[in-house]
Design brief:
This protein is 21% helix and 25% strand. The protein is built from six helices and 15 strands. It is globular and about 40 Å long.
C-alpha cells in the first residue's frame, strides 16, 4: 500500500519563492480545486492520502516533497534552500515519525527534496541552486549504511533535478536534456520531452500508474506511445509557483 502526504494550498501562495520564472497571478480557488483533483488522482492510483496541517503563513507549504527524502529504511528531513521554507519541515517530520526513523540535515547543508531522484539504490542529487555539496555529503553519511549511493548531478536552467528528469516507468526516464545530461544516469532509457514543452519532464509514479500535468500534451503523447499509463491532472496554478506534480506529495510505501 502507498501513503501520500499532502497539504492544502496556502492562501499566501501568491508570495511564493520564484527563481526561474516571472510572477503571475494565481487563482487561489482554482489552485485549491486543482489540488483536490490531484488528491483524487492519488487515491485512484491506490494511495492512502494523509493531510498535513494547513500552513496559511507559509506560501510554498503545498510543495511537501521538498521537506523530506523518504526511503524504506528512514526519512531524512531536509533543510530547504530558501530560508522562508524551513518552517515547513517541522510538521512533515511529525507526520513521518510514525512511519520511519528520522534523520536530519544540519546547517550549513541546504537540500530540497525535489532535487533528489531515487533510481534503485542510487540517490541522484541536483546541484543547481537550492541544494549544496554539504547536503550531499551529509545525506550520503546518513543513507550509505543502508546500502544507498549518493551522486551529485549538475542542473542548469530549472529549479530542481526533478524539474529536469523523473522516472516515468521502470527503467525509463523522462528528460529535458537542456537542463540535465541524460548520460548522468547510466543503465536507463531516456525519453526526451517535446522541445516546445521545457517544463514537461516531471511525472509522478504511484504504483502501476503515473500522474502527469495536462500542460504538456505533446510530451504526454510521447509517454503514452511509450506505454506509460497516465492519469492527467490540471496543475496550471501551482505551475505558476514553479511547482509540478511530484512537488505536491510525499509518496512512500506503507510498512508491513
Amino acid at each position: 500500500m502507498w501513503i501520500a502526504f499532502t497539504r492544502e494550498v496556502s492562501p499566501s501562495i501568491t508570495r511564493c519563492e520564484l527563481t526561474h520564472q516571472a510572477r503571475s497571478p494565481i487563482d487561489l480557488a482554482l489552485a485549491r480545486a486543482q489540488h483536490r483533483a490531484y488528491v483524487e488522482a492519488l487515491v485512484a492510483l491506490g494511495a492512502e492520502v494523509r493531510a498535513l496541517p494547513p500552513a496559511p503563513e507559509l506560501p510554498d507549504a503545498v510543495f511537501v516533497e521538498d521537506g523530506a527524502v523518504v526511503l524504506d529504511e528512514l526519512a531524512v528531513i531536509t533543510r530547504p534552500g530558501a530560508a522562508s521554507r524551513r518552517a515547513e519541515t517541522e510538521s512533515i517530520a511529525a507526520a513521518l515519525a510514525s512511519e520511519r526513523p528520522l534523520a536530519f540535515l544540519r546547517e550549513p547543508a541546504t537540500l530540497d527534496g525535489g532535487d533528489v531522484l531515487r533510481l534503485g539504490r542510487t540517490l541522484y542529487v541536483g546541484l543547481g541552486g537550492r541544494s549544496n555539496e554539504v547536503a550531499l555529503e551529509q545525506l550520503a553519511a546518513l543513507v550509505s549504511p543502508h546500502g544507498y549511493d549518493v551522486v551529485g548531478v549538475p542542473v542548469r536552467g530549472c529549479l530542481h533535478l526533478k524539474s529536469a528528469v523523473t522516472e516515468a516507468a521502470t527503467g525509463l526516464l523522462l528528460v529535458h536534456p537542456a537542463c540535465v545530461d541524460p548520460a548522468c544516469f547510466p543503465g536507463f532509457r531516456a525519453l526526451e520531452v517535446d522541445p516546445s514543452e521545457p517544463a514537461a519532464a516531471n511525472v509522478l509514479r504511484v504504483g502501476e500508474g503515473a500522474i502527469y500535468s495536462t500542460s504538456h500534451p505533446r510530451t504526454r503523447e510521447r509517454l503514452e506511445r511509450a506505454g506509460v499509463r497516465l492519469r492527467p491532472v490540471d496543475a496550471s496554478e501551482v505551475e505558476k509557483a514553479e511547482g509540478a506534480v511530484t512537488c505536491c506529495s510525499l509518496v512512500l510505501r506503507a510498512r508491513a
